[in-house]
Amino acid sequence: MGLGPEGGEVRGQQPAPPAPLRRPRVQPFSLIFFMVRWDSRRGTAGSPVVYCLRDLPLPHPRALAPLAALAVTTGLHLWRRNALLSILGGTTVHVALAGRVFAP
Which of 1, 3, 30, 77 is 20 to 30 A removed from 90 (C-alpha atoms)? Predict the structure, then answer.
């Protein structure tokens, strides 16, 4: 029970639960929620990938630039295990393909 202005208890009011125990107002994407609960590192790294590729029109040819960049980023990281090299390589491929080959 909460305390009133004179220090007495106020009836009928429940104290709010601590912040970590409150339910979120908006439920997150189920895939991201599963990945974070499964392994927080993979969920943290995977959620931007899901966010960036969620509206990608797969049958459209311009979808090849982000997919090729994702493949290059994944391949470089599996090969060299260097995050900076992977990010720079994937970004370079995406910019080159999106700006030159698949430009509107």
Answer: 30
